[in-house]
Amino acid sequence: MLNYIMRRILGMIPTLIFISFISFIIIQLPPGDFMTSLQADIAASGGGQDSRTLEALRQRYGMDKPIVVQYWRWVSGFPKGDFGYSMEWNAPVRSLIAGRVGFTILISGLALILMWVVAIPIAIYSANHQYSLADNIFTFLGFIGLSIPDFLLALIYIVVISLFFGGSPTGLYSSLSMEDSPWNIAKILDLLNHLWAPVFILAMAGTAELIRIMRSSMLDVLGQQFIVTARAKGLKEKIVQSKYAVRMAINPMISVLGMQIPKLISSSIIVGVVMSIPTIGPMFLRALTTQDMYLAGGMLMVMAIMLLIGNLLADITLLFIDPRIRYQ
């Protein structure tokens, strides 16, 4: 197993190199560069910028070099953890991402936990009560959850809170009295109290998807011969369900776990922009708008790394859950 993990980690290296190259090329495709966007912003505000100053800045950041040279200067710092320098923020990309990615992972992780805690019991109940009233209700709610995009649900939440409760649903995710206090149990509970809305919004579509996957898998497993044999031996229904049926039916859930992690990260970007959450979303959108190539590329690389790690963790978890699986 250790050899398999090492091969997977080594296999990530060429994948990340390919992703970095494609990402860098795509970011460079729009006409102009960061200096062009900067000049447009200055002109829109009624100011002006000397062309010699802009040219000097291009030379300083290596933007006058061929794209291959710019790409090499960027990726050559990856082994040292250097993702480049943000031109707009005038700060290292690594520090900017570190300040936002933690909050993004927190929200996405809580949403993932909520999805599994809610989806598995509902799916098990629906599979054991197929076509009942509760099963039909859960199926209907699942279709609604899948059909409503995350950003639309966030907009609905903002409108409802603003119009009917007179509150401010965006931008504030801690009590004013807790902003400057050190981290303790009270501050953590206060943070969780303010995070329930974005976590629920992120988890809604994923929960509906997991319910359908788990329900379908449970129905398939419950009809197999070994379940009938277990019941015929007189085993209690709880043992049949937990030890045999659920253990086999949960395999597809673990398989899609690797895809759920990057999906939550990407959804948190959109929800973060709509709800003004301090995730990587607003900063990533701004980096794309201003063509801050190193910052945008660094964030894309972080999301790619999360995707690869998520798939690796899902495969390892599946190995422990199902002893029939062996990776060569």
H and E order:
HHHHEEHHHHHHHHH
**How much helical structure, as a percent, in the residues?**
over 70%
Gyration radius from CA atoms, angstroms: 24 Å
Number of domains: 2
- What's the number of extended β-strand segments? 2
Overall pLDDT score: 80
- Spatial separation of the terminal alpha carbons: 8 Å
Strand content: under 5%
- The CATH architecture designation of the largest domain is Orthogonal Bundle
Number of helices: 13
- Secondary structure class reads mainly alpha
Sheet with the most strands: spatial strand order: 1-2
CATH class of the largest domain, please?
Mainly Alpha
CATH fold node name of the largest domain = MetI-like fold
Biggest beta-sheet profile: 2 strands, antiparallel
Instruction: Let me know the CATH homologous superfamily of the largest domain.
Output: MetI-like
Principal-axes geometry comes out as globular
Residue stretches low in confidence (pLDDT < 50, at least 5 long) are: none
